[in-house]
Amino acid sequence: MLNIVIFGAPGSGKGTQSEKIVEKYQLNHISTGDVLRAEIKNGTELGKTAKSYIDQGQLIPDELMVNILASVFDSFEDSKGVIFDGFPRTIPQAEALKRMLQERNQGVSVMLDLEVPEDELMDRLIKRGQISGRADDNEETIKKRLAVYHEQTAPLKDFYKKEGIYRHINGLGELERIFADICAAIEE
Ligand code: AMP
Questions:
Q1: Strand stretches in 76-160, DSSP E
Q2: pTM (whole model) above 0.85
Q3: CB of 8 closer than 6 A to ligand 1?
Q4: Which of 2, 68, 93, 166 is the most buried (most CB within 10 A)?
């Protein structure tokens, strides 16, 4: 099993690079943000709860996220591995992911940290908001999401460094060069 955590701030290119990784390595993809947006679109109870957090730029509570993640993970059949995009975002989520995979005799193979300077992230997210119409891609919410990233999510770098599976990727520059660096880190 090739289980990959793709990591980075909002706007670092996780979604774009995940699509390319999925295609090349034939993996299943879990984007927790996409899962939540689908729930909102379908008007489910989970969607209603999620929306109140997403619109504020805050994270959905860990327990809820961990349950969602496990049910999506267990829905895959004959999987060659999974790319986790947007999860984990907190230390308790990383611990829960480790436990969940251990219970299934698996583990995270590599954690890819896509690093992009803050002013570039801001630029990209504002531009994306103009195209995607995502309610949380407005300047005020973007600032909150970046603050939440620094406070709650960035500490995961140390968590995965201790696990010995952390790989830094320069996320600024040409798409194909970034993808080549990612492939080299995966195949190492
Ligand atoms: P994303 O599309 O990954 O940027 O996620 C959009 C929003 O969904 C985030 O700002 C959070 O409110 C929520 N979200 C997505 N993934 C998670 C997660 N793993 N834990 C908590 N909240 C999440």
A1: 82-85, 110-115
A2: yes
A3: no
A4: 93
Whole domain around residue 95: which residue ranges? 2-187
Known catalytic residue at 128: yes
Mean pLDDT of the 52-65 span = 96
Is the minimum distance from the CB of 33 to ligand 1 under 6 angstroms? yes
Q: How confident is the model at residue 134 (pLDDT cuts 50, 70, 90)?
A: confident
Contacts of 108 (CB under 8 A, 6+ apart): 3, 4, 5, 84, 97, 98, 101, 160, 163, 165
- 62-74 and 32-41 helices, crossing angle to 10°: 90
Beta pairing, strands 82-85 & 4-8: parallel
Domain count, the chain: 1
The tens digit of pLDDT for each residue in 13-51 reads 999 999 999 999 999 999 999 999 999 999 999 999 999
Question: What are residue 92's phi and psi, to 5 degrees?
Answer: -55, -35
Tell me the two tokens of residue 61. 């509570």
Question: In this structure, what CATH number is given to the domain that contains residue 175?
Answer: 3.40.50.300
Strands of 110-115's sheet, edge to edge?
A: 28-31, 82-85, 4-8, 110-115, 166-170
* Closest ligand 1 atom number to CA of residue 36: 8
